Amino acid sequence: SKFGGDPNSVTLAGYSAGSASTFYHMLSPMSKGLFHKVIAMSCGVIQRGLIVEDPLKLTKKLAGLFNCSLSSSKEMVDCLRTIPASNITNQYKAMRSYYNLPMFVFGPVIEHHNTNGERFLLDDPVQLIKKKQYNHVPVVTGIVRDEFKERFAWMHTNSEETKRKLEFFNNNFYKVLPVILLYDDKTEKEKRQITDELQRFYPNGEQINNNTINGLGDAFADATIIHGEYTTAKLLAKYNNAPVYFYMFNYLGRYGHAHDSTTSKVLGPTHHDELIYLFYVLKGFPKFNTTDP
């Protein structure tokens, strides 16, 4: 109401990480009654790797990068609190394994045992939805056809660096793929079985090269965004007491966030591309009218 709006008609909207955050507000008892509708674009909450299963292990890895003592949780946390936030964010890349991946490193934590105050996330999202223990509001949610598929566009080039990367990728296929496609928590036997199935399904059993980039890109898009977003929407459609609308953005226009590095051709549509048409995105895109070709 302070901004001239209707306090009884508040819509939460978010994109990518903001989309997941919006869904988490649906799931949190702390957010009850604070909003009435949701627009969540290109990230669900039923995504592999999004929720941190072992936050202590992850925190120890971060603390080790700053030579903090790991002898007790208190000493470790006290040390991390002395480090500037910018230094911590600059170490984010070091928390990843290959090609600046996996996509998710830090994320939400389920607060099972915190009894000394409010808890934001009480249980696994699937269980909360199935038990209907969440905020039931109308939802518009969806995906872009080629979500993050461009992350492997570098494979289209024929540079020596690309050749080295591809050689490493294929020589370490059973190590790299579980990390970037978010199933590295499985047993070694399970990881090998899943990797074999993925290679048969997406790149048709071939080695990864610039001719099979589309297959790897599809696998990455499905693993990081599409499957989790679709599963979230499907589950909400079954249990939500209000309408759930799902979309897929499929328009490839003159502008886009991803380009072929050899031809400058727009790739996609990819992650964020529909925002070009919803908002005036300042960086990299001219202002255009709906009547433009």
Automatic annotation (TrEMBL):
Q: Which Gene3D superfamilies match?
A: alpha/beta hydrolase
Provide the GO MF annotations for this entry. carboxylic ester hydrolase activity
Lineage: superkingdom: Eukaryota
Enzyme Commission code(s) on record:
3.1.1.-
InterPro entries in UniProt: AB_hydrolase_fold, CarbesteraseB, Carboxylesterase_B_AS
Keywords of this entry: Glycoprotein, Hydrolase, Serine esterase
- Spell out where the chain crosses the membrane: none
Domain Carboxylesterase type B as annotated: residue spans: 2-281
Does this entry carry the keyword Hydrolase?
Answer: yes
Pfam families, per database record: COesterase (PF00135)
Report the sequence similarity comment from the record: Belongs to the type-B carboxylesterase/lipase family.
Q: What is this protein called?
A: Carboxylic ester hydrolase
Source organism = Laodelphax striatellus
List the gene name: CarE
